[in-house]
Design a protein that fits this description.
The structure is a single chain. By secondary structure, the chain is of the alpha/beta class. The chain folds into 2 domains: 228 residues, Aldolase class I (TIM Barrel, Alpha-Beta Barrel), CATH 3.20.20; 79 residues, Four Helix Bundle (Hemerythrin (Met), subunit A), CATH 1.20.120.1460. It contains 15 helices and 8 strands. Strands 1, 2, 3, 4, 5, 6, 7 and 8 form an 8-stranded parallel beta sheet that branches. InterPro entries: Aldolase_TIM, DUS-like_FMN-bd, DUS_fam, DusA, tRNA_hU_synthase_CS. Its EC number is 1.3.1.91. This is tRNA-dihydrouridine(20/20a) synthase.
Amino acid sequence: MMDWTDRHCRYLHRLLSRNTLLYTEMVTAPALVRGGALHLLDFDLAEHPVALQLGGSDPAELAKAARLGQDAGYDEINLNCGCPSDRVQSGTFGAVLMQDPGLVADCVRAMRDAVDVEVTVKCRIGVDEQIPEEVLPEFLSRVGAAGCKRFTIHARKAWLQGLSPKENRDIPPLDYGLVQQMRGLFSGLHLSVNGGVTSLDQAEAFLAAGLDGVMIGRAAYHDPASVLIDADRRIFGDTAPGLSAEDAVLAMIPYIEGHLTTGGKLAQVTRHMLGMFQGRPGARVWRRMLSEGAHRKDAGPALVEQALAAFQRAQAEAADSDAA
């Protein structure tokens, strides 16, 4: 979710769910350790629980980056072994690490030695010509022996040669059954499934089948209200009332005002809010008003309030039309 789940996105998602574990976009260890880009660790305390996802392949450098993440206040440090991006491959990050479980184990061991918070791993079931039924158990065994007890498994292979990152999200077939088999083989590990999950119904089915967790990525981004608003009740058993999508938008106004006072731009926040009313009458006018207006120099919270009012008028008109 590089360039997507930044701190503005996570703040919005936390308004929709109190309990869901949020992940940062992948931050590379070299950027933190060698580049000194510590601003990439910025987050709001309201985001907790939140995990820092790191990219890298040098154990010592990852250990330093993990320590920086712990010092910044993150609840978990996650090593990405699943991203198929060309940018990531060139730095020996992400899914290419599936080819070297020994190195991943060394990285995890070094990171665990450097921090007190939990170190976790996100991986694929394999890459390129690897046979997932052989590769995945070995990967989990070796990295688990290094002390990692929580894995999120994207249930697709990644084709590093011949497919774009976008194609790697759709073309390789999903193999949920293999992930389920790993649940039976590794009873001591906490295993979550990722890839192709678009609804809470699917998430509940995976949990009922014995998996320990479910990671939802793009669906939670493009339709956050549908995925997140009811997650506290259905997944975590939290019966406290939550915010509606409309209330969450209003709750973003003070956050937006604070962002603007520090020199930020409205579009940096509202680009993550475009899908708030996905599938509802008025969603199109909401998206259009934000998309067209948020980049203007004088754009501020008033635009969000105007877009919300336009959405609500469209809702009322649709209700009147249905009644007639």
